[in-house]
């Protein structure tokens, strides 16, 4: 679908189940705080198969969009990007994303979010994209800022990680430019 710097972004596909399971288990420590549901649904190849089937269906129904980021050469899955919390009346959606340990701090996610923002605005007719992030997740805050998202406000007690107290989260938004 979209390609850049030796990587490509494409919608989740049925054949991604095995590589998704490998990606999730390899990054379990990283995912357990902010992606606990994705983690628990991908701990075995069978669970990943069901998860991917559900996500492919949601994609086709435009309920939620899950994209993979893969290395072109090896086809290795290196990251995931959701466009979720879709409100078609408001034409609004929210990004959630994660990248594997070996691929962090290389600008891959920034590039991918930038490309998918353009895709959401042009192909999905989304008008507002959101990123909701904890202030201590510096890498994710950098992605939001580097992709020209604007800090809007602090959302009090917005998210409760498993086994922790609720956290305040920061809301960033990006708006489709209106052509005049």
Automatic annotation (TrEMBL):
Keywords: Acyltransferase, Transferase. SUPFAM superfamilies: Acyl-CoA N-acyltransferases (Nat) (SSF55729). The keyword rRNA-binding does not apply. The keyword Transferase applies. Residues 9-150 form the N-acetyltransferase domain. One of its GO terms (molecular function) is acyltransferase activity, transferring groups other than amino-acyl groups. InterPro entries: Acyl_CoA_acyltransferase, GNAT_dom, N-acetyltransferase. Belongs to the acetyltransferase family. RimJ subfamily. PANTHER family: [RIBOSOMAL PROTEIN US5]-ALANINE N-ACETYLTRANSFERASE (PTHR43792:SF8), GNAT FAMILY, PUTATIVE (AFU_ORTHOLOGUE AFUA_3G00765)-RELATED-RELATED (PTHR43792). This is N-acetyltransferase. It comes from Flavivirga rizhaonensis.
